[in-house]
Amino acid sequence: MEIVTDMDDMMLDELSEIWDDIRENYDTYNNSAYDRTVLDCAADLAADPGGDSAYAWAIGLVMMAPYLTWLPSAGVAQQAVTALEAADRALRDRSCPHSSHPYESHEDAADEDLAGLLPALADETADWNEERPRDEWRCPRNAAGFARIALDIVHPGSATDIPPRLPLEAKDSISTLSALLNGYPKPWTDINDEISSQASELSSAAPADRAGRLMVVRAVTWYAVSGMVRAKSVLDHLVRAVEEALPHFTDPHCAHDGHPALPGSAPNAAELGILLSSAGGREIYERGRIASGRNAPIDAVVCPVLMADVADKTLAVLRKRRDELFGERDTSHADAEYLRADGRLDIGKLVERTDHKSWNEEYADDLGLWAARRHGESADDRDRTVLLLVAHQAMKISYPSPPLSVVRGVLATMRAVAAAPLPAECPHGDEHPVVRRAEFRAGMAHFWAPEEFSPGEDSRSAESWTCPRFAAAVAEETIRDLAGLYEEDELADAS
Question: Which of 101, 183, 224, 370 satisfies CB 3.0 to 4.6 Å to 331 for a cystine?
């Protein structure tokens, strides 16, 4: 066998470094330097697909294949595929003395080792510390196996007799969703598009992939209904996708004694779903299950009965939260919580709930909307002042941000207050209360019920609390905080 010392006027160790750089930085479009390198490698393989150097060119194309899954220039991927297919045809049936070959156990994690391996493969004098002997690596059948691995990277599922691989797109999706669902999305992630794309994937999924895609939608649903997503269209898209998928899981019976518990963590649930959304991923799952002796058989995990239950529960969550986040919100229950038995405001409870503490976040949205609505119904100046300030403070506490249904109602009140005619000067001699300071809550309690609460350290007159100019300033600040959260056409009802 010829020992390769020079290839296309460049040493193989230099070439392997270039190929490895493309492997590591494959996620780019129409890179002319990458295109040229791929074309050169493919041309050398196509020139002698059954030659002694075919193993090097085939391994080089394995390293560069991830780039071909993005968007190389027109014709680049096809030329590489044509060369790889020619090598596979020429080499796969060659006779050899080996009972097995390295490609048969070569998984994607080992791709990063290829750059260091290639120069030593070509140089018989180089140290060789690999488990498999050099002649097995340079065997024509091994070269054909690596050609099929490269083909499978470019077109997932197109090759046989090779270890299963997760498609590059699936691996990227796992990484993106893991960051998003852990609360730290990658800087370039469009959250709405990313979640909506999972609904699209479910709608267009092949029958074998549908259960996995439903699991991914289940995982992103938890994020979508958390309040982090401010576009109703995203939830609409998820609802439609699950509604369309549900009839595919209508079999009411199965042979399983029970079904496995699916992951309760959104990142883990999304990863499992993506893994089960491709043939390669499903084979990886089964191999891992058999090797570890853990996890349920795949037929139990994707059982239509289990998936019907997943779809029903996911739909229930989506519909309920869609109504809460974007529909008309019922706050009548808040009367019992924030009014005393005589119908007066429970100022102590309102002061407690407007303290900017994390445990008040769960009350903020309903409290803010309730206060804003009651403000418009009240004729008492003291009540109106307190209710305006409670609505303002609740919006500060709301986390991650108030939903559209709340913003609409609060903005309607705030815009009405801000638009009211104002006196040229304040009708009092002292300053307005400072809303952000801790003394504010004690001062508000004393203002509303001076007979029950002692004045705070920074007391203000009742006239300063009820001052129209103070109310307008509070309203305008709230408007600034809320107006940019949603599009104006969504907020039209608040105008």
Answer: 370
The amino acid present at 79, given as its one-letter code, is Q
Contact 104, 163 (CB under 8 A): yes
Six token digits for residue 355: 């303290």
Residues 214-241 have a mean pLDDT of 95
- At 58, list the tokens: 């085939």
Q: What's the rounded mean pLDDT across residues 402-428?
A: 95
The pLDDT tens digits of the residues spanning 140-188 come to 999 999 999 999 999 998 998 999 999 999 999 999 999 999 999 999 9
- Its sign, for the CA torsion 341, 408, 235, 186, is negative
Place of tokens 């996911």: 314
Of all residues in the chain, the percent with pLDDT exceeding 70 is 97
CA dihedral for 181, 186, 191, 196, sign (positive or negative) = negative
Q: Do the beta carbons of residue 22 and residue 64 sit within 8 Å?
A: yes
C-alpha distances in angstroms, 288 versus 275, 282, 285, 297?
12, 10, 5, 11
Give the integer Cα–Cα distance in Å for 288 and 183: 28
What is the Cα–Cα distance from 31 to 26, expressed in whole angstroms?
10
Question: In this predicted structure, what is the pLDDT of residue 461?
Answer: 94
Q: How many residues does the chain have?
A: 495
Give 10's strand partners: 7
- Please give the mean pLDDT across all residues of the chain: 93
pTM over 0.70, yes/no: yes
Specify the amino acid at residue 133: P
Token pair, residue 446, equals 């004393």
Both tokens of 189, joined, read: 């992630």
β-strand partners of 29: 71
Q: Which two tokens stand for residue 96?
A: 């050899």
Is it the case that residue 132 has pLDDT exceeding 70?
A: yes
Indicate if the pLDDT at residue 486 is higher than 70: yes
Cα–Cα dist 140/90, whole Å: 9
Q: CA 232 to CA 364: how far, in whole Å?
A: 21
